[in-house]
């Protein structure tokens, strides 16, 4: 008797909000990716495709968002197909059995503050100011003091 065990445990951040869809029989499916750091000689990041079904998909839809740190438990599935050009393709994905938050909502919001501020800045119509052209000319309030100070040998 052969023994086999297929369990995957990942901790990473969502690279995008979950994409939700329904199957023809009405089941909910959520797809998203996790950025998972790989430690070693050269620290790299792997982007793992995650698929959740039913209640797990509804949970993902309602509570998960880009940048959130979560733990995913599931099993590895390899999808194989032939594309329209008759080329054999395959992709790996983790089918979720359980998900757990790895940070508080407040910590998630603080971690994403820089991203949100940067995104909102890019979307706004903020105009930069060029000091030489955009500011009106003002009289220097201290210009009349230059003569007074230069005539004194020891002004202090």
From TrEMBL:
One of its GO terms (molecular function) is single-stranded DNA binding. The keyword DNA-binding applies. Coiled coil: none annotated. InterPro entries: NA-bd_OB-fold, Primosome_PriB/ssb, ssDNA-bd. Residues 125-156 are annotated as: Disordered. Pfam families: SSB. PANTHER family: SINGLE-STRANDED DNA-BINDING PROTEIN (PTHR10302). This is Single-stranded DNA-binding protein.
């Amino acid at each position: 008797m052969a023994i086999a065990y297929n369990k995957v445990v990942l901790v990473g951040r969502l690279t995008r909000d979950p994409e939700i869809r329904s199957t023809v029989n009405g089941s909910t499916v959520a797809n998203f990716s996790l950025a998972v750091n790989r430690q070693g000689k050269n620290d790299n990041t792997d982007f793992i495709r995650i698929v959740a079904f039913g209640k797990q998909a509804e949970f993902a839809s309602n509570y998960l968002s880009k940048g959130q740190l979560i733990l995913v438990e599931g099993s590895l599935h390899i999808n194989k197909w032939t594309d329209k050009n008759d080329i054999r393709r395959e992709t790996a994905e983790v089918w979720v059995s359980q998900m757990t938050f790895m940070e508080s909502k407040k910590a998630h919001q603080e971690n994403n503050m820089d991203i949100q501020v940067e995104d909102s800045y890019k979307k706004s119509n903020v105009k930069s100011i060029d000091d030489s052209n955009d500011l009106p000319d003002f009289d220097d309030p201290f210009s009349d003091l230059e003569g007074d100070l230069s005539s004194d040998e020891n002004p202090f």
